[in-house]
């Protein structure tokens, strides 16, 4: 890359970013609306060699990372099906189902994740 020409992180990784063909969030199955309510999630975290990023709602992305550590995402929850089957995520999806596609919310850090980190 020529000196002085900086590429944005999104431009560098855009070839490995996936927008679902049906336009639905692969976690909650609600419509994705391009803009600030959409984020990208690595099913396999970058620290574990993940390259492909998937468009999901920001609120869904925040929920995933409030519950699981990266090693859990890499080893156990590395598919959207696996994530949806997890009980806390299933409850979250049920709760979220009545919200509009542009809904945003802050998630407090999960006590489950705090407890796991204290064991490390």
Features:
single chain, about 120 residues, alpha+beta, three-stranded mixed β-sheet, about 10% strand, globular
Model description:
This protein has one domain (11-119). It contains six helices and three strands. It has helices spanning 9-13, 58-67, 70-75, 80-85, 87-96, 111-119; strands at 17-18, 38-42, 53-57. The protein has a three-stranded mixed sheet. Helix 2 packs antiparallel against helix 5 (87-96).
What sequence of helices (H) and strands (E) makes up the elements?
Answer: HEEEHHHHH
Secondary-structure-based class equals: alpha+beta
As laid out across the biggest beta sheet, the strand order is 1-3-2
Average predicted confidence as pLDDT: 84
Q: Report the span from N to C terminus.
A: 40 Å
Q: What portion of the residues fall into strands of 2 or more residues?
A: 5-15%
> What global shape is seen?
globular
Kindly state the percentage of residues in helix: 25-40%
């Amino acid at each position: 890359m020529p000196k002085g020409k900086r590429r944005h992180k999104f431009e560098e990784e855009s070839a490995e970013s996936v927008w679902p063909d049906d336009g639905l969030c692969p976690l909650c199955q609600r419509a994705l609306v391009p803009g600030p309510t959409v984020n990208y999630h690595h099913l396999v975290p970058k620290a574990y060699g993940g390259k492909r990023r998937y468009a999901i709602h920001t609120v869904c992305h925040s929920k995933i990372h409030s519950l699981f550590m990266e090693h859990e995402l890499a080893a156990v929850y590395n598919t959207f099906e696996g994530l949806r089957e997890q009980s806390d995520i299933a409850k979250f999806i049920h709760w979220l189902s009545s919200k509009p596609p542009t809904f945003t919310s802050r998630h407090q850090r999960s006590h489950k994740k705090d407890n796991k980190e204290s064991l490390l």
